[in-house]
TrEMBL record:
Residues 41-260 form the Xylose isomerase-like TIM barrel domain. SUPFAM superfamilies: Xylose isomerase-like (SSF51658). It comes from Saccharopolyspora endophytica. This is TIM barrel protein.
Length: 272
């Protein structure tokens, strides 16, 4: 398995104000320098990087700039992360337009994975029919991805309608999309990450690793929290997964390069 790192730690995740009124223009992005992130991730010894859709879109008109930064740092763009509300019928065409553009850009820059999160919680509460809508929409995402040579995976996430194990089963039973376990989000949602990987061994298509402490909820570099990451890696291996392990850390109270180095040293020791 090869090791990559997400650029989110450089500045943390933000969204774009235009998305308040126009779903097609709402993109995730890291609020820091991608040139710095790519340089630091390569220097820490990783081979790949994941970026948010908004950051990749910044290079749509000058693709040679991003390709040059990746080549200089010895990295490949492995995956692009996007998301959508998915459950609102009127907004779905615009949401899918955004996903399609993201998939086009991911393929253009040589990525192999499209990682997707989302599914809103309604103010009035989540209805079971929302999971039907989510499942149908995610199958559309799979078709968009496959048409461009990408593998699509769903990433359960706090703040969406897929947080806990029961909700994960709701979407896994309704869609053929792959499963991207995020160790910390699964734990924060009340699940055991290793057990959840073992529950869906044939669906694991991508893996996000981050450590976690529950009280208060804190995401941490690998080895600095309470998760049994050795068990997660064992579960991933049992599933026959032999692809990228993508380290992700939403924020860090210090130099993000140091956080990347901490997690790389932990994984080097864990993986032998």
């Amino acid at each position: 398995m090869r090791l990559g790192y997400h650029s989110i730690t450089w500045g943390g995740v933000v969204g774009e104000a235009a998305g308040v009124t126009s779903a097609k223009d709402l993109h995730y992005r890291a609020n820091g320098s991608m040139a710095e992130a790519i340089r630091d991730i390569g220097a820490a010894g990783y081979e790949g990087v994941e970026m948010f859709e908004g950051n990749v879109a910044d290079y749509a008109d000058e693709p040679e700039v991003l390709r040059g930064m990746l080549a200089t740092s010895g990295l490949e763009l492995v995956s692009v992360y996007t998301g959508a509300n998915f459950i609102y019928a009127d907004a779905l065409p615009d949401e899918m337009s955004k996903v399609t553009r993201t998939a086009d850009l991911a393929a253009e820059f040589g990525a192999r994975h499209l990682v997707v999160g989302g599914g809103a919680r309604r103010a009035a509460g989540t209805a079971r029919s929302d999971y039907d809508r989510l499942g149908d929409a995610l199958d559309q995402v799979v078709e968009i991805a496959e048409a461009r040579g990408l593998t699509a995976s769903y990433h359960p996430h706090l703040g969406t309608i897929v947080e806990n194990p029961d909700e994960i089963e709701e979407v896994m039973s309704r869609s053929r999309i792959g499963f991207c376990p995020d160790t910390a989000h699964l734990a924060a949602g009340g699940g055991n990450p290793g057990d959840l990987v073992r529950s869906y061994p044939d669906r694991v298509r991508f893996v996000h690793l981050k450590d976690f402490r529950p009280d208060p909820v804190t995401f941490l570099p690998l080895g600095h929290g309470d998760l049994d990451l050795a068990d997660v890696v064992s579960a991933v291996r049992e599933a026959g997964y032999d692809d990228w392990l993508m380290v992700e850390l939403d924020s860090y109270d210090g130099d993000p390069r140091i956080a990347a180095e901490i997690s790389k040293a932990y994984l080097d020791k864990l993986l032998g």
